[in-house]
């Protein structure tokens, strides 16, 4: 889970994207305290640091975020529509207006509605088109807007639009090999894919060694309370694990009223409300303080189609590991790209509270082994999973985009 805090990295010395004009559109509030806010901030900062001039088009976000670097102009678009589809269509129209007034060399989008406007403009102006896919609305809407997702005719049209944009893109940028496999199947053809996972800033999460506790082991979950995150399984697991070891459970992240209510009801049902500390979303410095007080970071992702097939790249995992905390996480393909079982954390059968409980008991029983897992996890992030690594990968993908013959298509 994350706020919109950005790491501070020096700009690329040779500025390989100097003179490039990039329009980046995302139909979400920015800045925000979710992982998406961190990723958007790092991607546009990578482009600007490499010399590009970036116009960032989003919905209005939260206040108080750190400034974006020189070279990024953020234009939040005020969309007053409450209905999902009406808001999407209004955002598409506003993006089209902005692109008409600001000719770009590359148009980079995160969703199909802004993507539709971007592709039309890219074809007219001969601009390059980048489709960044971290989660397709046709998959995500079931959780966010179930009434919309339950309309099969609309869902079919949305899927067709997503697939058309992937096939038309000069570059499809995504977050994990699992997601890349899913997109290849959806597009039913090779795609010009570049995989850039999420990351973390070790300097920001330079937490001290996990405390040597004589009392309860503190377990931290940091992220959205959305159903696919598996919070209800975590509460059931905590109920089982506390029979053998003392626990404290801290849950921090953005939520909706229905999601918070569900977590509270399940906490009472499993009789863990006395060990549960539930907090709203926090910025990254505050999250770092939470991690400094924690023993273990947990990611109990459910074994649903979103996580198993579409995949993800949970920022929470990188942040736990950057803070030197052992991880207990669901054994899913996208998670195995990040966490090595019994080296940087423990993986357990997803949607299986009993297996998660066993992992928590094992971590509580061996504090020295738990700390070694955390130390190796931090070394992994420092060596290959910082936001500096990810920014460099974004710039490399753009360099390949500008020399299209060198961009290998992923079969």
Count of individual helical segments: 16
Gyration radius, in Å: 21 Å
**Straight-line N-to-C gap:** 33 Å
Mean pLDDT, all residues: 90
Percent range for β-strand residues = 15-25%
Quaternary: single chain
The helix-strand sequence is EHEEHEHEHHHEHEEHEHEHEHHEHEHHH
Architecture of the largest domain in CATH?
3-Layer(aba) Sandwich
Question: How do the strands of the widest beta sheet line up side by side?
Answer: 3-2-1-4-5-6-7
List keywords for this structure.
13 strands; globular; Rossmann fold; disordered C terminus; 6-stranded parallel sheet; alpha/beta; 16 helices; 7-stranded parallel sheet; 411 residues
What does this protein look like?
45% of the residues lie in helices and 17% in strands. The N terminus and C terminus are likely disordered. The longest helix is centred in the N-terminal third of the chain and has 18 residues. The chain is α/β, with parallel strands linked by helices and 411 residues long. It folds into two domains: 198 residues, Glycogen Phosphorylase B (Rossmann fold); 168 residues, 3-Layer(aba) Sandwich (Rossmann fold). The chain contains 16 helices and 13 strands.
What's the short story on this structure?
The chain is built from 16 helices and 13 strands. It is α/β, with parallel strands linked by helices.
Q: What topology does this entry show?
A:
Elements: E1 21-30, H1 35-49, E2 53-60, E3 72-77, H2 84-101, E4 106-109, H3 112-125, E5 128-133, H4 137-144, H5 146-149, H6 152-168, E6 171-174, H7 177-187, E7 193-195, E8 217-222, H8 231-241, E9 247-252, H9 257-269, E10 276-279, H10 284-292, E11 296-299, H11 305-310, H12 315-322, E12 326-330, H13 333-336, E13 345-348, H14 353-365, H15 367-384, H16 387-402
Parallel strand pairs: 1-2, 1-4, 2-3, 4-5, 5-6, 6-7, 8-9, 8-11, 9-10, 11-12, 12-13
């Amino acid at each position: 889970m994350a706020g919109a805090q950005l790491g501070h990295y020096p700009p690329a010395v040779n500025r390989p994207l100097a003179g490039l004009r990039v329009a980046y559109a995302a139909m979400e509030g920015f800045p925000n305290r979710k992982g998406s806010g961190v990723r958007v901030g790092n991607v546009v900062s990578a482009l600007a640091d490499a010399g590009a001039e970036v116009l960032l088009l989003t919905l209005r976000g939260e206040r108080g975020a750190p400034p974006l670097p020189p070279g990024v102009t953020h234009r939040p678009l005020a969309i007053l529509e409450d209905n999902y589809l009406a808001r999407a269509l209004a955002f598409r129209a506003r993006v089209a207006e902005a692109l008409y007034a600001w000719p770009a060399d590359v148009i980079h989008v995160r969703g199909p509605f802004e993507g539709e406007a971007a592709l039309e403009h890219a074809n007219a102006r001969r601009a390059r088109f980048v489709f960044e896919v971290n989660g397709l609305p046709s998959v995500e809407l079931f959780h966010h807007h179930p009434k919309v997702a339950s309309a099969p005719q609309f869902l079919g049209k949305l899927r067709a639009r997503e697939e058309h944009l992937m096939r038309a893109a000069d570059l499809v940028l995504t977050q994990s090999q699992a997601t890349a496999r899913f997109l290849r199947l959806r597009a039913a053809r090779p795609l010009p894919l570049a995989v850039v996972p999420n990351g973390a800033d070790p300097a920001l999460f330079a937490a001290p060694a996990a405390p040597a506790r004589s009392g309860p082991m503190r377990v931290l979950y940091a992220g959205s309370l959305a159903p696919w995150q598996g919070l209800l399984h975590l509460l059931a697991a905590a109920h089982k694990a506390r029979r053998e070891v003392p626990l404290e459970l801290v849950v921090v992240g953005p939520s909706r009223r229905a999601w918070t209510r569900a977590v509270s009801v399940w906490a009472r049902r499993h009789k863990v409300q006395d060990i549960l500390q539930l907090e709203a979303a926090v910025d990254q410095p505050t999250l770092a303080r939470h991690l400094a007080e924690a023993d273990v970071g947990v990611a109990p992702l459910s074994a649903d189609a979103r996580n198993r097939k579409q995949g993800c790249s949970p920022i929470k995992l990188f942040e736990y590991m950057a803070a030197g905390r052992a991880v207990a996480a669901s054994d899913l393909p996208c998670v195995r790209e990040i966490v090595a079982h019994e080296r940087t954390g423990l993986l357990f059968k997803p949607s299986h509270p009993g297996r998660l409980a066993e992992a928590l008991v094992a971590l509580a029983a061996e504090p020295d082994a738990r700390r070694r897992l955390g130390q190796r996890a931090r070394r992994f992030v420092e060596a290959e999973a910082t936001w500096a690594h990810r920014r460099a990968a974004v710039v490399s993908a753009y360099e390949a985009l500008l020399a299209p013959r060198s961009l290998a298509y992923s079969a």
